Amino acid sequence: MSASASLFQDYHDWFIRYANRYIEQANEQDRPGFELKLTHTLNVVKESLWLAGHSRLPAADQHLSGIIGLLHDVGRFPQFSQYHTFNDRLSCNHAAASLAVLREQRLLDRLVPSDQQLVRTAVVWHNQKDLPAALPARLFQFAGLVRDADKLDIFRTLLAEYATHDRSRILTVDLDLPDGEDCSPGLLQTIAAGQMGDARDVHSRVDLHLIRLSWVFAFHNSVALRRFHEHAYLEQYRPYLPNTARIEKALRLLQQHVDKALKTA
Fold this sequence. Notes:
mainly alpha, Hypothetical protein af1432, 2 domains, 13 helices
């Protein structure tokens, strides 16, 4: 069936039950991790619906974008249950784990075949550095939308965790990296070239912060970049970065990109 408000609600209700099973069975140490992913997913759904609405997609496509948001990270729950980490390099590819959950629970059976393919494609590619340029336009559109929504809420998630000043929670989202005193010279060169940072440039939490901020080069839709600007995420991140010449230059370059992109959108 085509996506509809009632079908979206059914997926929403399923996801709440699914996530709560993990939360209820978790020990005290793991429960915050599962709760984090429950909250993140629901906020990705909100961002997906906002982006789809402001992109003036038809109602059925807006509902479909919400369904993708609900399903994009379902693999995070078995991942964290088994490995007690969200670091894919230390556990498993969470997008592949999400696809396995979709298959095992036959979650896409109620969608028409073309929408099933669309959801699978969006889920598989949501955590990769780039989307294949050869993807058909409609697949590219929806895969890009959930990637943008995911990135937007990751910023919100991270800032909320930093605000707790709870180091154990912060290390959960910052992958147990050392603090660092400055960004890597190679990362600054990448940002100066107008490119998103690469995981190979991450040597500290400082590098990780800037790589995440360099996602501004990777938003697929100017609507998402406007959303990033409206949330003032670049400004909100500033207190968590050291005051060095390299970092100031990187932040200035990122802001210049956002300003220019919004003026020409």
